[in-house]
């Protein structure tokens, strides 16, 4: 059984404060959320 995480999710682009942020839906969602003010702290 391979427990390695692979980037198989959709690539999502989100506009935050006029800034376009692109992230992978599966792998980077947690990292993306942690960048939001008041969420990751």
Please, could you describe this protein's structure?
With 41 residues, this protein is of the alpha+beta class. 15% of the residues lie in helices and 29% in strands. The protein has 1 helix and 2 strands. It has a two-stranded antiparallel sheet with strand order 1-2. A hairpin with a 2-residue loop joins strand 1 and strand 2.
List its traits.
about 40 residues, 2 strands, flat
Summarize the structure.
This protein is α+β, with helices and mostly antiparallel strands and 41 residues long.
Distance between the termini: 34 Å
Shape by Cα distribution: flat
Mean pLDDT across every amino acid position: 65
Q: Helix proportion of residues, in percent?
A: 10-25%
Number of domains: 1
Low-pLDDT ranges: none
Number of strands: 2
Number of distinct helices: 1
What order do the helices and strands follow? Answer: EEH
Q: Structural class of the helices, strands and pairings?
A: alpha+beta
- The Rg value, from CA coordinates, equals 12 Å
Binned strand content: 25-35%
> For this entry, what is the oligomeric state of its chains?
single chain
Biggest sheet, open or closed, and with what strands and sense?
2 strands, antiparallel
Instruction: Report strand order across the widest sheet.
Output: 1-2
